[in-house]
Each structure stands twice: as C-alpha cells, then as structure tokens.
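pinned: reference chain
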Amino acid sequence: MARLITPARAADALAAVLLGGLDPETCPGRTAVAVPGGELLLMPAASGAYAGVKIAGVAPGNPARGLPRITGSYLLLDGPTLRPLALLDGAALTTLRTPAVSALALRHLAPSGRPLRLVLFGSGPQAYGHLEAVLGVRELSDLVVVARDPARAARLVAHADALGVPARAGLPGDVAGADLVLCCTTAREPLFDGRLVAPDAVVVAVGSHEPDARETDTALVRRAAVYVESRAAALREAGDLLVPEAEGAIGPGHINGTLADLVTGRIAGGGRAGCPQLFKSVGMAWEDLAVAVALFEAAGGANSET
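pinned: its structure tokens
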C-alpha cells in the first residue's frame, strides 16, 4: 500500500478532506472492546462518495510470537449504496495514515528554512513511517534514535544513514538539543523530561489512544501550545492530556487548536510565544477513510468495477 502513495500524498488527501468542510468534532468515536488477546477497535466513517470501517486488533503478546502488534482490515464502501468496493490491510493502512497525520501537522508547526535535528523515540513500523513522512515535509540535519532494543535502534540508524540522514542511537536527554521530537512507541509512562525540550521545539506524540497511557509528561504539556485532531477525541482518549488534567495541572481549555484549525487557516501555528508546540494524535476514523480512498483511487479503483 505504501508504494501506491507516499505519506506526503496521504497528507494531501487528509488536508483536502478538511478543506472540503469535514468537521472531525462530529465524527463517530472509536469503539474499543477488551478481548482475551488484547483489544478490538471498530472505527466507522462516511464522507462524500465513500464510507468505510476499520476493524483493528491490538495484541500486546504478538511481538513475542514474531507477529505484528497491530492487526486488522479496512472495508471501503460506496457512500450512496454502501456497496463494498475494496478490502485493505488495516495494519498497513494505519502505518501509512498515522505518519501522514503527523506530516500534515508538521507542515504548519515545524520550523522551515533550515535543517532540523530530529529525536525519534521508537524503532517499529511507525518510527520508519514517521521518518519517511518528516523527510517529505522538512529537511533534517541529523537523527537521534531512542529505543529500548539496541539492535532495532541500530537497524533504524542504518536505514536513516542509507537515506542520507546522519544518525546515531541516543538517550532521552538528547531532546534538549532537538528541533523536533517524535514519539512513536507503546510506552504508558513519559519517555523524557519535558523541562528539557527547547522553547522553539515541536513534539509529536502518536503512540497511544488510551486515557491512562502517555508518552509526554505533565511538565511538557503545561508549558506547551497543544494541538490535537479533535477536541472531543482528545478529551476522550489522549492520556498525554487527560493525566495532567486529572492531576489538576491543566484544564480542558489548555488545547490551543486542532488540525482543522491549522489546515483551514482559522489559527496560525506557533501558539503561545516562547513555548514548545505539542501535537497529540490519537488516530481517527475519518483519517483512515481519507487515506483508504486515496489508495483506492491511486490503484484505479474509482474508474473500475470492483
């Protein structure tokens, strides 16, 4: 699937949907069901000429079995008739969609005009996808990979070097020198000390959609200008924001804006002067639909009987 369109092109598809008037605040929420192997997620959406639903599985025990942690399928439907059009690999769709959402946010939040130093937490598929996505929207001067598994970190470092990005493995404290910090992990506790993040840095956190799990700490959230895909979704699922709120450190009004605000120009990126920018993504069904449609049409599906 990733060969059909790049994360940058997927980001274009997401932007087009938002510019076309879709309001993420009105989109259906994710349904999560606990099962013995982990969690089943149901994510339906409809927009324009299409509808669709993703059924995803999150199986924490799979990596130990040599299997992907995220599984699933995406059923794309014709909007007016609800006739099935295509069945897509749900995990591959997520691996493309999530970096595309981050890339779209970074177009509006990340500094331009100079190469950026990136610190990337994680070494799985999302880390690779996010590296490609960032390279599609900004130039990088170097990369620091922070990961639990030294061997996997070394493989990602070698991959970045092959792409022409000088890279090395590092430690959480390396965020102090970063222009951009990407968190692409399964962590449930903060990955780094938010007080170390530079005032003009951008942090993107995509690893969790659970109210009690987070990759960033209260210190960062308190000092950052915060952007989300949807206020409603973030206040249901974003532990990065809900945990500090439960601590009394922030309130719901701490969110500065949404992805739609940035894309449509209702607000300009930059937030409060002299503070980091934090984009917290939980993943939404409208994003899956937008990227699934882009993949379907890139494959010629819109012009053929499927």
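why pinned: The mean pLDDT is 92. The chain is about 35% helix and 25% strand.
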